[in-house]
Every structure is written in structure tokens, then in C-alpha cells.
Amino acid sequence: MLGKLVVFGVGLIGGSFALALKAAGEVGEVVGFGRTLGSLNQALQLGILDRAGFNVGQEVSSADLVLIATPVGKTAEILARVVPFLGPQTVVTDAGSTKQDVVAAARAHFGGCLGRFVPGHPIAGAENSGALAARVDLYRRKQVVLTPLAETDAASIARVRDAWERCGARVSEMTAAEHDGVFAAVSHLPHLLSFALVDDLARRENRDLLFAFAASGFRDFTRIAASHPEMWRDICLANRDALIEELDRYRGQLDVLREALVRSDGERLAATFASARTARREWAEKGAGG
Amino acid sequence: MLGKLVVFGVGLIGGSFALALKAAGEVGEVVGFGRTLGSLNQALQLGILDRAGFNVGQEVSSADLVLIATPVGKTAEILARVVPFLGPQTVVTDAGSTKQDVVAAARAHFGGCLGRFVPGHPIAGAENSGALAARVDLYRRKQVVLTPLAETDAASIARVRDAWERCGARVSEMTAAEHDGVFAAVSHLPHLLSFALVDDLARRENRDLLFAFAASGFRDFTRIAASHPEMWRDICLANRDALIEELDRYRGQLDVLREALVRSDGERLAATFASARTARREWAEKGAGG
Questions:
Q1: Alpha-helical runs (H) found in chain A
Q2: Which of A99, A166, B88, B219 could crosslink A147 through cysteines, CB 3.0-4.6 Å?
Q3: Would you call B215 an interface residue with chain A, using a CB distance cutoff of 8 Å?
Q4: Complex ipTM, two decimals?
Q5: How much is the pTM?
Q6: All domains of chain A, ordered by start, with CATH?
Q7: Does any CB of chain A come closer than 8 Å to the CB of residue B217?
């Protein structure tokens, strides 16, 4: 049970976290900071917040947990703003989709307080965003990855893990580098590929004809191309090195398939497609992917 | 109203066509040819067929419409088998996902009967296949593209168009080359890209870790990677030239995005993502994609 939670960013991620802890009776008071009065008012009306915060020092010093759930580009700035005011009991976590950049920001701005910082990443869809999209069950049976630093206190990790578990999530731990490698492959690259395809089609003279005949396969493949441009710009830049590595690997794979097409090598194509189908089906049968 | 329909290939595509025409009372008798007795028996039990055919000549000569709905690799062979037996009233169409190869096969095998051949492509999902997957409403509000040859009779086109419209489909016409260009871009390339990603992940040592953290974005992006390997091998080979052209264009797009990543050019990334998002949303709002 947390006495007081302070949330920076009262959108889908922070809002759903607050709603889930409130519904579980696991938090005394939720105070939020947001970019606009409008979003704070909305969060108040939706019951996400008990109060909107105005004084960071006052709110943070008495908080048991601070969740940074802003766009990742803002995390460093908020770490720097909160660190002078940490109370003896305050633990800080974040919800960014990339972790090495957050760890670097924490090393730069969190000084002697690294024991109290627990980098985290809830894996929950974000097709819609904003407080209105927040849901009490967003994290139920979803995964949350924590990437503690060597300096992070075991007690801090336990508090953050416990809070996510109370939201219904399954929590695992890995290093920030492992995390960024995994998500470059299974999330950041697919987003880049989907954006790339739709943008390319959209710039053509015959775009209306093309889109008129796009069907359900296209719909699924490009759903993530409707994701938030600035959010994904930040993610791609924050995880640039791992993403470039994945992209180069993928370009190599496309080169191989191009060669197979040029040679009309049906066996090679069918083997690739069959391997993909088997893996995709096994994955789906495990009930993965939410 | 068709007196007699003969279907080669009693799977999802041919089966759904027969079911829809029967439900609409637009066909007198449906006779099917299939690869196995098992599939023919299944189609009989499901009410797709009135009879299984054994003598191609007898069945085709009295048919008003012949639909070739086998894997595209078989189309040429079936065209050659049926052409000696066309009755004076018989019109032939197909349901292949590529059209230039079908037109070439028709030119090679259909001799003086090109007036009676109407190449077609119903755009309907095929995640599942086989007669069991056939549905009376598969084509409702779906698109069907016809790519008539210069030689095709207007009356033949009208008969095929009418049959598809009775199934609830919206029918349009374009050339086979236009068709293959459009579908290379909006269907064949996305399938290749999705297969390529999953195959690449599936071959890695840490595949279990990767798949364990793949979430809903990955699920959508890779749904088409569960498609039928041999069917997609055939499509890729049949539409090789257009697909290579699209693939090269896409590789160029990836090169540009890689450069933007290397230069940390956030503006370029955000502009690409925003263009994609806008186009994707506009497309979805039109209710496209089924």
C-alpha cells in the first residue's frame, strides 16, 4: 500500500496506473503534474487524480512513489526537477519505452540517489493516448520490464514491482541494454517498417488507387503506422544504436529475399515463409501478444 | 442466373463463391473438381457442391461459368484442360492473386477462345483456407478486380461481373499490369516484409526472449506472416518483376530512414511518421480494409 503517488504525465500510461492502484485500494492519494490545465482537469474529472500538483518540491518530498509517464524526451528534465526534493521514503520510476537513455539520464541527474530510481517499461498498447484513454485494466496480464541499475536498492525494486503487480501486471527484470535490444527487434523496428511503407505509398501520384485496393492484410500490417509521430521519433532516437543494428540485419534479410526473387528460387522463399508461419503460429498459440 | 457453375478448387475462395450464389438463388447446379476426395466430400457435406465432377469434358461443355480457384500455380494447367471442351455458352474466370501470369497462360493455352476468358481477383482475406473456411458472406462489400484482355467479349465480362455482384462484391476493372503493380505495393510487399521479420527473429538464439516480449503491435504487424507459404511463394514468383520493383523502392525508403537515424535527424523521422499516420487514419476512416 502506497501512501502517496505522484504522477508526471496524466495520459494513458500514468492514468491507467493510478486508476488500477486506486481500484485495488493500494494507494492513499494520487497527485498529478501535467503539461496543460486541460489534461489535469480531465484527469481530476475521470477520478485518476485526487489533486493536481503545483509545487513539485512539496509533493515529491512526501511521496512514496513518483511515476514519470511523460513522453521519453522529458524524462531527464523531470529527473533533474525531482531529485532535490526526494523524501527519505521516496522511490522514483518511469514508464519509458527505451531504457538505456533513461539510465544515462539518471546517472547524469540523480547523483547519490540512484538507489531510489527503478527504470521501468510497461508493455501496453498505446494506439490511443491521453487521460480519456486510461483504463483500470490496461495492465492486467500485461508485462512490465524493470531494468534496475547496479546501484538500485532492492527495497526500491520491490516497491515498484509490487505496485505493478497490484495493477495485474507480470513483472520481469533485465538490463537496460538487453531491454533495448529486445524492443528494437520486436517493437521499434516493426513500427519503423510500417511507417515507412505507408509514407512511401502516401507520396505517390496513384495513392488513391493504391489505398482503394488495400485490404485486411494491409490493415493489420499498418495499424502501428497510426501511432504517435513524436513519441516514435523520440523512441527511435533514444534507441538509435540498437535500432540501426536491427534495421541493418533486416535489410540483409531483404537482400537475401531479393536474391531469391531474382533467381526465382521458390524453395528459398517457401522455406522462409514456412519458418515465419510456424513461429508466428506457435507464438499466437501461447496466447502471447495480448 | 447461371444454370451451371463448375468450380476447380473447392476451398475458401471457390467454396464461398458457390455458397453465395446458391444463397442468392443465382445458380442452378454447382459441380466441383478438387485435388482430393476428402476435400470434395467435405464440400458436398457443407452444401457447397451439388455434385463432385469426374469428367472434365462433360461438365465444362454444359457449364455457363467455370471458376478456377486453385492455387495460382495450377491455373495454366487447368486452362489447357478445359479449353477443348468449352460449350458455346461457357465463360471461364479465375480468382488468382496475380493477373499478368494468368493472362500469359491464357494467351498460351486458350487459343481462339480468349473472348470467353475473364481474369479476376476477389480481394478477400485468406488467413484460413479450405472448404471448411468457406462463408456465404465472404465477398459481401469486398472488392473484386477483373482484368479483361483486349479480346475478352463484353458479354463474358458482364456475366462474371454480375455473378460477383450477386455475391455482394463491388467489381472494378483495370489492366493486368495495373493490377499487379497495385497489389505488389499494397499486398505482396507487406506479406514479404512480415514473413521476413518473423523468420529473422525465429532463427535467433534468443528467440524465446524476443517472442516473450512481443506485444500487440507485433501481433498486428505479423498476422500476415501466418499466411500459407506455398500460396505466397507462388504469388511472389508470379508477380516477381513488380514485387522486386516495390521491394527496391522500399529498400530505398529504408536507406533514407537509416540515414536519418545515423544523423539523429528527428525532424525527418517525425515528418515520415506523421505523413504515414495521416494517410493511415484517412484510409481507416473511409472504412477501407474490411
A1: 12-23, 37-45, 56-61, 75-82, 100-109, 154-166, 176-183, 189-202, 207-213, 216-221, 229-238, 240-262, 266-285
A2: A99
A3: yes
A4: 0.91
A5: 0.91
A6: 2-173 (3.40.50.720), 178-285 (1.10.3660.10)
A7: yes
